[in-house]
Amino acid sequence: MNSLNRVFEKIYVISLTTEVKRRKNIQAISEYFDFDFEFVDAVDFKSLNIDDLKKKKEIAFPNNNFYCTKSCTCLGKGHDIHIGQIACSLSHLKVWNLVIKKNLRSALILEDDVYFEEGLNEKVEIIETSLPKNWNYINLGRNNSFKASQKNIQKIKRGFSGTQMYGVSNKGAYKAKENFYPIRANIDGYIDHFVIQKRWGSAKLKNCFASTENLGINGSIDGKFETNIQNYY
């Protein structure tokens, strides 16, 4: 069994049904690195109605009077979130719901613009030997730097920029879902501020980790895909 499929009970790739090039690319990557995955159709921002979301109090929009206070990250001003960011967050929520519904032990979540460098499987095997059995979240791909360490994985107190490659346990998915509404940040900001950190009304998820080496690279930022959040989600 491939190392990724051995560490994670299921691998999901978030992708719009219309992104044919991206889907072909991630399929080719999976064949090259020998792992099995399942697509989860991303939420298209064109299917969303901001006014409806506001009425349902599903987004913490600017100047709302039902959620945000001075103890929130916005200091009571509300959150100005782009509809594309909302769609992105809802796409990750779909995966968390699958993890919970199927009662999976764990899942690896990939975005369809992720790519890997040579040696992925060997690096995952090393991480597998260091990962505690009671982990709830592990970041394996990010856009910002992480402190150097001789350890393969490090315990973290906050999240990172980017959600192109991360793993969640069943408990991690449940906690992330439980605290999801109202939407008040893009998905990486949500995981950082409202799932991992110990303030801002966070879920205060315990046993969160990150690989010291960045395994999942964002192809959009690197220019492998001509896209941005406005026209992708």
Give a structural overview.
The chain has a single domain, classed as Spore Coat Polysaccharide Biosynthesis Protein SpsA, Chain A (Alpha-Beta Complex). The strands form 2 sheets. It has a 7-stranded mixed β-sheet with strand order 2-1-3-7-5-8-6, with helices on both faces. Helix content is about 35%, strand content about 15%. It contains 8 helices and 9 strands. Helix 4 crosses helix 6. Residues about 230-233 have low confidence and may be disordered. The chain has helices at about 5, 20-35, 50-55, 85-100, 120-130, 170-180, 185-195, 230; strands at about 10-15, 40, 105-110, 115, 135-140, 155, 165-170, 210, 215-220. It is α/β, with parallel strands linked by helices.
Care to give the gist of this entry?
The protein contains 8 helices and 9 strands. It is of the alpha/beta class and 233 residues long. The chain has one domain (3-232): Spore Coat Polysaccharide Biosynthesis Protein SpsA, Chain A (Alpha-Beta Complex).
Arithmetic mean pLDDT: 92
- Cα-based radius of gyration, to the nearest Å: 17 Å
Q: Percent helix among the residues?
A: 25-40%
Shape: globular
Unreliable stretches (pLDDT < 50, length at least 5) are 228-233
> Strand tally, please?
9
Order of helices and strands: HEHEHHEEHEEEHHEEH
Question: Can you list the strand order of the major beta sheet?
Answer: 2-1-3-7-5-8-6
Q: What is the second-level CATH architecture?
A: Alpha-Beta Complex
Q: In the CATH hierarchy, what is the class? A: Alpha Beta
Beginning-to-end CA distance, first to last residue: 33 Å
Counting DSSP H or I runs of 4 or more residues, the number of helices is 8
- Tally of discrete structural domains: 1
CATH fold annotation: Spore Coat Polysaccharide Biosynthesis Protein SpsA, Chain A
Protein structure class: alpha/beta
